[in-house]
Design a protein that fits this description.
- The protein has about 270 residues and is of the alpha+beta class.
- The chain is about 35% helix and about 15% strand.
- It is elongated and about 65 Å long.
Length: about 270
């Protein structure tokens, strides 16, 4: 994928204790300069503040640790001067396959994240803040909201407006399914027509008001199985698990034990 050197616009003032995708952009851009080492978490913590102050001082700006228009302008200038390509840049998408790859890379970056028992939060604070930034709330099952986070981050990294698609994703998988269909996204049942990064829809065999979802990575074994990345899952494949995990699942529509595969949505 070709990436240019224009920093994505940050729409608000960034300072200590805020979080979100734009903070990740900031941290990536600081790291791209080659003399700072900021942990990319999406949370504007004390270490990020310290690096921002150092950067501001090096540019002759007031070292207050607050990232406003002057600091952003100086940072964009420095990134361009260094001719550095980072994930905090606008990515010209030449085809859907490029965006699919960004989605998969984003989903894989969250594998291993774990919840606090009972859907009460997440063990890594940065991940909880990111989940909250897309609308997740405590006690909610979070498989669908995890997908919303993945697509939000991927679209943003690619320089696209994520709301044009993520507005259809709700905490309920079945409601999300209905939203996509009403918006003109057909549910696909032929695996050969499904693209990597698709939103997967399962329904519970015991309660059809409930379901599960994940992001499709690829099909294997002639389309009879698929590799997925899912939130709110576990080693047994439950819809009430505690982790983000990479899974191998049956890919036969209309069949399944516990969870019945309904199909896929090519929403990219």
């Amino acid at each position: 994928m070709k990436i240019n050197n224009t920093i994505m616009k940050i729409q608000r003032i960034l300072k200590k204790d805020v979080s979100g995708v734009d903070v990740r952009h900031l941290q990536n851009s600081l790291n791209s300069l080659g003399k700072y080492n900021v942990k990319v978490t999406g949370v504007f913590d004390s270490s990020t503040e310290s690096v921002v102050k150092a950067f501001q001082a090096s540019c002759g700006l007031k070292p207050d640790g607050i990232v406003g228009p002057k600091t952003l302008s100086a940072l964009e200038k420095k990134v361009k001067e260094n001719n550095v390509a980072t994930t905090n840049t606008t990515t010209p998408i030449s085809s859907n396959s490029d965006l699919n790859q960004v989605v998969l890379e984003t989903a894989k970056s969250f594998v291993g994240q774990k919840e606090i028992s009972g859907n009460m939060g997440f063990k890594q604070s940065f991940f909880q803040r990111l989940m909250e930034s897309v609308g997740w709330k405590k006690k909610w099952a979070w498989c669908s909201m995890f997908c919303k986070l993945v697509y939000t981050e991927a679209y943003t990294k690619a320089g696209l407006d994520p709301k044009r698609m993520t507005k259809y994703i709700s905490p309920s998988v079945q409601q999300t399914r209905n939203n996509f269909i009403k918006a003109g996204y057909p549910i696909i049942t032929d695996w050969k027509q499904v693209k990597p990064g698709a939103y997967i829809s399962w329904v519970s065999s015991s309660d059809r008001t409930k379901g599960h979802t994940g992001v499709l990575v690829e099909f294997i074994e002639n389309g009879t199985k698929m590799i997925t990345i899912e939130g709110n899952t576990n080693a047994e494949g439950s819809r009430e698990g505690d982790s983000v995990a990479k899974k191998t699942r049956a890919a036969v529509v209309g069949k399944g034990k516990g969870l019945i595969l309904q199909g896929w949505f090519n929403i990219i």
